[in-house]
Predict the structure.
Amino acid sequence: MTAREEVLARIRTSLSGASSSAGHATARPADPAPIPRAYRTRGDHAPGSPDLVDLLAERLVDYRATVVSADPDHDGDGLAAAVAGVLTERGLRRVVAPDGVTGTWLAGADALREPLTVAELDAADAVVTGCAVAVAETGTIILDAGPDQGRRALTLVPDVHLVVVRPDQVVQTVPEALARLDPARPITMISGPSATSDIELSRVEGVHGPRTLVVVLAAGETSAPPPQQSARSDCR
């Protein structure tokens, strides 16, 4: 037996958990150990409850996102006004959006829809999308390339990402969020603006995605809308 054959035989034996005879595994691989699933699968609050919406806003601000509240009426004018207000206040004129985003959100902006060229996407000031689900405990916005979210590049290239979150999309825990998602779809999880740090912990934002994350929270009828909150300036 060559040295190569001996090494490979030992690897096979180690992987199968069996003893070897003449350098070969003699037993079938052992059954895998059961995966413990004693973690929480749901939170204490029902999805969309005012407590969860408030907790999500708190976590987002802690991650240096900007949270804007909107109290939509039956026509959705309040939500559209909140989105338009953010775009106008920040001077964001060149806006891109997936086809599923309602046109009223983009009033007053020079909005472009998919498909987009590389140059058009690169020149965009901001992207406006919805989301698939949001996790209150972790302050995470999850996209799954749905009609109001678009392809992944659409939300990674522009410097500002404005995402709308409805109350019914807010859950408390990660397992609750995953239960709502199709694992076959492309999933993007966003916890604050894109940021990284070097070995000296010097924070740099906007390297791997948008430098600025603005979340418009559509408050439900049973919840008073939280006040507008600005991103924190301290480094965590």
Observations:
- Residues 221-236 have pLDDT under 50 and may be disordered.
- DSSP finds five helices and 14 strands in the chain.
- The CA atoms of residues 107 and 147 lie 19 Å apart.
